[in-house]
Each structure stands twice: as C-alpha cells, then as structure tokens.
Design brief:
about 160 residues, about 70% helix, about 0% strand, elongated, 5 helices
C-alpha cells in the first residue's frame, strides 16, 4: 500500500518535473511552447488514467516533442512523416489550434500506429529511468550530507 502511494506521488510529481525526452541534436531548445504546455496537460491526463488501471505510456505531445528536433535535421520516410503530422494534428487540436487542411493527418494504418505506440512506450521508459536515477542521486546526497553532519557534530574522542 505504501509503495503504491509512493509510486502514485512520484508519478504525479513526474508530470511536472520529468524532462521532455527529445531527439538529441541542436534543435531541442526550439520545441514550441504550445507543445511543451501540451506535454504537461497530456501527462496529467495519462497519470489520472493510469490511476484507474490503464497502462501508462508516453503521450502524443511527448512523441511530437521527441520527433520535432529529428524533423528539423533531415528528411524522414513517408510513414514517419505521416506519424509526425498525425501527432501534430492531434496535439494542435488539443491546444485549440487547427492543423492546416493540406497537411492534416486524421488516422494511421496499423503498422504506423504500432510504430507510434512503440515510440511512446520507449519515451515513457526513458522518463521513468531519468526520474529513478534523479531520485537515487538525491537519496545518496542526503545520506552523505547526514553522515557529514553527524561526523561534524560528534566530538573527537581521541586526538593523535
């Protein structure tokens, strides 16, 4: 019960504190603010759905944010272009912005959806890995600080 509650609290905090996982490269800091805002909103929705028993995964906005720097670097094959435009269509609609008609993609075929779901699962796993490592580092630092504090407070019993 306690572990479940701790995980729930960690997941909720992660909605706001987990990094946005993006394709490594020089374009990561150009991800649009609207997309970043949607990442937080969609993570919150996913967190609530996971609390009801649904398997947690990365969100559409996270997948779009991941792909954005990649799209800026080089061309992609048609399937990934369709996935990117599909994500753009969904995320922009969630942000109250309509995707232009000539590039709107409303649906994906089964293989594209499988690729997208695989990407979103991978993104979620990367987020969790970063969060767990950050938590481990924080706990280690606290232990070290506490040990140093105790050592400084302990009187020297023997002077050599």
């Amino acid at each position: 019960m306690v572990k479940t509650m701790e995980k729930g609290i960690s997941d909720l905090a992660g909605v706001f504190t987990d990094p946005i996982i993006a394709w490594p490269g020089g374009w990561m800091d150009t991800i649009p603010e609207k997309v970043k805002q949607q990442v937080t909103i969609e993570r919150l929705v996913m967190c609530m759905r996971a609390n009801r028993g649904e398997e947690p995964t990365g969100t559409d906005a996270e997948a779009l944010a991941y792909m954005y720097p990649r799209v800026m670097e080089a061309s992609m094959d048609r399937d990934w272009v369709d996935i990117y435009l599909y994500l753009g269509t969904k995320v922009m609609a969630g942000a109250g912005t309509a995707m232009p008609e000539d590039i709107r993609v409303e649906s994906l075929n089964d293989e594209q959806m499988r690729d997208l779901n695989h990407l979103k699962a991978w993104i979620y796993q990367q987020r969790i890995k970063v969060r767990l490592e950050r938590d481990r580092t924080e706990r280690r630092q606290k232990r070290e600080e506490e040990a140093a504090r105790k050592e400084a407070a302990q009187p020297a019993l023997f002077d050599f």
